[in-house]
Amino acid sequence: MKIFLKITITAFLYIFSFIGLYSFDFTEPDDLYMQGKYEEGLKILLEKYSPDKPDPALIWRKSRMIYEIADAMPEKHKKEKIGKNSQKE
User: Fold this and answer.
1) What residue segments make up the domains of the chain, in order of their start?
2) Cα 73 versus chain centre, distance
């Protein structure tokens, strides 16, 4: 049982260290988000995004930036965009 536990712990340590080596550092986009600079943060995230290797953390942050940009949009523009996107052909 002790050997199994040691192997399991070692495997998890290798996995987490491997993930840490190849993950994107979200410090800059997160700082921009906190400063309300959503378009700048979105630009960085879009540069790092790859549809071949989707990163859930990156997708979530990208969605959060897009939501904040849309939420800050004047009500008139929101209605225009919604109208254009909901027209039936």
Assistant:
1) 25-86
2) 21
